[in-house]
């Protein structure tokens, strides 16, 4: 009996935090009243900052021109899928995510999406207002999900696809950053040596009685380069600008764009990796759009618009025309083995014959994803020793060009 009374008194006793004081509760109240993210209620088309201060206008200017990355969109679609799957209305889910996003541009866009949906628009139609943010394929998948009543499923698939694209872009940038960074450092070091170090060296050699005729070949080459860089730097910059402008004009034309994209596909090592990347984009997006319920022709059209290479765009247009005429996708790809390998065409043919094109496309995409990952690892393993050798040769030539005349000067002084 006493034990029961004791247990009851223990359970009924107020829980006390050891060391709690008024200052502790003051901090707790601050935590309760604080917000991790400042909400932004801007709605495009409704918000007007004409009478706002200059600081507000500048803030709006930079926010409205900021970017929305793949990771931000992937997180948005994933969380929207989770909330819709839990039974939360789309408008409420979008509003909640708008208040929680850390990207101010995306927050304003989501506010606008929620506002449009409240006024009778579908989510896909509201997204179509932001063509620079949401791609046509993303809008098409959301629209298919709304029309078929499987919005949560389509959003989960879209989020997973964006996650894969984001990871792939990071891997591509990671493979490219190392050699680019090394080359940039070498260029800056060379320019610094020519502009600041080499003139002092030449002054020292001239005072020591060493003439230009007696300089080693490597030193003479550096001396000529130093004269060109210091005397004609403006011509070098102008030449770079002119070449860049001519290249942009050439690539901007139809003639140049197709040949430049073809040249990239023919590059050793890199060209094969690019072809695999474009095949991955084609099969993964076509499969996802067909699974979303879009007609095959519409899926191919959206896929062609999302691929940057002109040759693949042109080929997707041919495929679309062939499908309109009643032919299969695989049949129209057989004449372009350079763009689409034979094994890909065969697997697509199996998918079309068994009415499982979406699943087959997903398997092809997984296989090519692994091949691209392995290809990037091989490229990194090849580039690292090559760049180390290149840096070693650069340092050796630079040291030879600078140290050789110094040794000659010391021999002259010693004698």
Task: Provide the descriptors you would attach to this structure in a database record.
415 residues, mainly alpha, Receptor-associated Protein, 18 helices, 78% helix, extended
Walkthrough of the structure:
The protein is mainly alpha-helical. It folds into 2 domains: 64-134, Type II secretion system (T2SS), domain F (Receptor-associated Protein, Up-down Bundle); 162-415, Up-down Bundle (Receptor-associated Protein). Helices cover 78% and strands 0% of the residues. The chain has helices at residues 2-12, 22-33, 54-64, 70-85, 90-100, 104-118, 123-127, 136-148, 151-207, 217-231, 233-252, 254-266, 270-291, 296-306, 310-324, 329-333, 342-353, 357-414. The model is unreliable at 5-13 (pLDDT under 50).
CATH class of the largest domain: Mainly Alpha
Write down the overall geometry: extended
Strand count: 0
The overall pLDDT average reads 81
What sequence of helices (H) and strands (E) makes up the elements? HHHHHHHHHHHHHHHHHH
**Sheet with the most strands?**
none
The residue ranges in which pLDDT falls below 50 over 5 or more consecutive positions are 5-13
Distance between the termini: 112 Å
Q: CATH-wise, what's the superfamily of the largest domain? A: Type II secretion system (T2SS), domain F
Number of helices: 18
CATH architecture of the largest domain: Up-down Bundle
SS content category: mainly alpha
CATH topology of the largest domain: Receptor-associated Protein
Estimated helix fraction: over 70%
How many individual domains? 2
**Oligomeric nature of the chains:** single chain
Radius of gyration: 32 Å
């Amino acid at each position: 009996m006493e034990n029961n009374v004791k247990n009851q008194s223990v359970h009924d006793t107020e829980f006390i935090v050891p060391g709690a004081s008024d200052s502790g509760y003051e901090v707790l109240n601050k935590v309760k009243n604080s917000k991790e993210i400042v909400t932004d209620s801007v709605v495009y088309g409704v918000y007007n900052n004409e009478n706002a201060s200059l600081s507000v206008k500048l803030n709006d200017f930079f926010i409205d021109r900021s970017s929305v990355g793949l990771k931000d969109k992937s997180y948005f679609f994933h969380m929207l899928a989770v909330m819709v799957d839990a039974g939360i209305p789309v408008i409420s889910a979008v509003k909640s995510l708008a208040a929680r996003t850390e990207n101010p541009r995306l927050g304003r866009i989501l506010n606008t999406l929620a506002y449009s949906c409240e006024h009778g628009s579908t989510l896909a139609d509201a997204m179509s207002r932001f063509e620079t943010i949401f791609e046509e394929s993303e809008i098409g998948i959301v629209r298919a999900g709304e029309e078929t009543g499987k919005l949560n499923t389509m959003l989960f698939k879209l989020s997973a696809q964006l996650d894969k694209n984001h990871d792939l872009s990071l891997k591509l940038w990671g493979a490219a950053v190392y050699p680019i960074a090394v080359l940039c450092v070498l260029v800056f070091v060379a320019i610094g040596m020519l502009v600041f170090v080499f003139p002092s060296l030449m002054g020292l050699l001239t005072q020591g009685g060493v003439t230009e005729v007696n300089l080693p070949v490597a030193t003479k080459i550096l001396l000529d380069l130093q004269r060109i860089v210091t005397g004609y730097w403006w011509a070098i910059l102008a030449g770079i600008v002119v070449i860049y402008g001519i290249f942009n004009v050439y690539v901007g034309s139809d003639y140049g764009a197709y040949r430049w994209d073809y040249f990239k596909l023919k590059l050793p090592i890199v060209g094969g990796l690019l072809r695999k990347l474009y095949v991955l984009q084609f099969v993964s997006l076509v499969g996802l759009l067909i699974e979303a319920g879009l007609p095959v022709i519409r899926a191919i059209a959206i896929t062609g618009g999302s691929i940057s290479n002109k040759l693949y765009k042109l080929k997707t247009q041919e495929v679309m025309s062939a499908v309109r005429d009643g032919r299969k996708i695989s049949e129209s790809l057989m004449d372009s083995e350079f763009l689409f390998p034979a094994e890909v065409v065969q697997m697509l043919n199996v998918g079309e014959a068994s009415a499982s094109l979406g699943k087959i496309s997903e398997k092809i995409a997984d296989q090519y994803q692994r091949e691209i990952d392995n290809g990037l690892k091989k490229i990194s393993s090849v580039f690292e020793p090559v760049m180390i050798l290149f840096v070693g040769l650069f340092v050796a030539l630079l040291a030879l060009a600078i140290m050789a005349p110094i040794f000659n000067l010391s021999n002259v002084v010693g004698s």
